[in-house]
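INFO batch 0412 | record 1 of 1 | parsing
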Amino acid sequence: MFALRPLRRRRGRHGSHGCADRAAAFADQVKSELTDELPDEDLGQDLEDCLAVYELGSKPRCEEVEYLELVQEAIDRIDRGR
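INFO prediction complete | emitting tokens
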């Protein structure tokens, strides 16, 4: 079963601009893939905000679990950088 995890705020951990540009491009790629998987959702720019403002019980249970897991997995991928 899916449980909401505490939100982790990303800090500027990338020193050089090239690395930051690659990280931003990767984050955009992950968000694009998530948007393709969840075409009916308005995800916004910050995925962590999507989880923070999400109201539990606003979707059927199976859809809710899938939505929350996909968004959290995307956040985790961005944090890991792969």
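INFO post-check: The helical segments are 17-37, 47-53, 61-80.
INFO record closed
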